[in-house]
Amino acid sequence: MRYFIIAGEASGDLHASNLMRELQLADTQAVFCFLGGDLMQAQGGKMIKHYRDMAFMGIVAVLKNARTVLRNLRDCKQAIADFQPDVLILVDYPSFNLRMARYAKENLNTKVYYYISPKLWAWKEYRIKEIKRYVDKMFTIFPFETAFYAKHNYPVEYVGNPTVDSICSRPHQDQSFADFCEENKLPAKPIIAILAGSRKQEIVGCLPRMVDAGLHFPDYQVIIAGAPGIEADVYNSVLKGRNVSVIFGKTYELLQQAKAAVVNSGTATLETALIGTPEVVVYHVPLGRIGYFVKEMVVRVKFVSLVNIVAEKLIVKELLAHLFTVKNIAAELDLILNNSSYRQTMLQNYSITKKALGEPGTAERAAKKMVSFLRR
């Protein structure tokens, strides 16, 4: 069968590539065309656009790049029409993907599957109308999403969480701290890891405060996890000579060796918890206190980090909007690094999140279900 897949960011590229691998095992005649990244390209098929040419976050960024956004939409529609897929598989990235779902349904009558649901449970719940109208099957990755969709009379397929698979199958799990430092030409000092996000806008807006908080601890070295698709020059321009290192392609290894992590809210918060590294979560909200107040009015969940949302309790500290300051981050890092009881409680509570997510095998379960539904 013919599969057209759209993933608009680094995490989507990872999860979509794993799904492609399993689809080829479940369907030996699988042919792919996609918008995605290098990991998807490694699975074969034709790439129409790379996600780094699509990842615009926020109204301002979208408006500034409106011509590119419109061209991407137009090119994607044409590619779908030319490819004539048996199914269009959408991976998160809702603003773009729901437009493609509507196009495929109304113009081509193509089956549409969604793998990794948009976070309607957090905000923009009104999008459920588009989901019900244009998406034939929703394959979810968080257990609480089943109940959310059920209240809208829309059954979904929970297939587990792909982050669990990524963490369980990650390389170098037995690597020692000494070997990690030697391999990456680092001094043998304990590490504070910085994960500032996968988009340029996030990195520019968040990284200086995250790094400056880490530099409050001279007995530690601050190491930044370089995001896929982001050039080293971006980090250099933001860091402005700060004495820190940036390591690309080794985020999991870095987290495994770190004593603590400062993490921009997103999938990385979950990865950090599953690896077992104590963390503080940050999130930039424009306009500070005003933006925080608006968030409280608009966002429908109690927490922003997936660690806390899945566990349904506060496990890791969340510093949002006006609370996202160097002083506050440093204070939380001090607790994590120097208060053994505080640190141990956080690590013990991670087990709640791990248990809720279930066992690995997400992409395999999703692929088998998709192929089965298509063959009916």
Defining traits:
Rossmann fold, 376 residues, 18 helices, alpha/beta
Task: Give the helix proportion (percent range).
Answer: 40-55%
Q: For the record, what is the CATH homologous superfamily label of the largest domain?
A: Glycogen Phosphorylase B
The helix-and-strand class reads alpha/beta
- Quick one: overall form? globular
* Radius of gyration, taken over Cα atoms and rounded to an integer in Å: 21 Å
CATH uppermost class of the largest domain: Alpha Beta
CATH architectural grouping of the largest domain: 3-Layer(aba) Sandwich
How would you write the strand order of the largest sheet?
3-2-1-4-5-6-7
Low-confidence stretches: 287-299
Strand content: 15-25%
Query: Tally the helices: what do you get?
Result: 18
CATH topology of the largest domain: Rossmann fold
TL;DR?
Strand 2, helix 2 (38-41) and strand 3 form a beta-alpha-beta unit. This protein is 50% helix and 16% strand.
What does this structure look like?
The protein is an alpha/beta fold and 376 residues long. It has 2 domains: 2-167 and 360-375, 3-Layer(aba) Sandwich (Rossmann fold); 174-357, Glycogen Phosphorylase B (Rossmann fold, 3-Layer(aba) Sandwich), CATH 3.40.50. The protein has 18 helices and 13 strands. It has helices spanning 10-26, 38-41, 59-64, 66-83, 94-108, 128-134, 144-150, 162-168, 177-183, 200-214, 232-239, 251-257, 267-275, 289-298, 306-311, 326-338, 340-357, 362-375, and strands spanning 2-7, 31-36, 46-50, 87-91, 111-115, 137-140, 157-158, 191-195, 221-226, 245-248, 260-264, 279-283, 318-320. The protein has a 7-stranded parallel sheet, with helices on both faces. A 6-stranded parallel sheet has the order 10-9-8-11-12-13, sandwiched between helices. Helix 1 packs across helix 18, helix 8 (162-168) packs across helix 13 and helix 10 (200-214) crosses helix 16 (326-338). The two termini are 13 Å apart. Mean pLDDT is 91; it is low at 287-299.
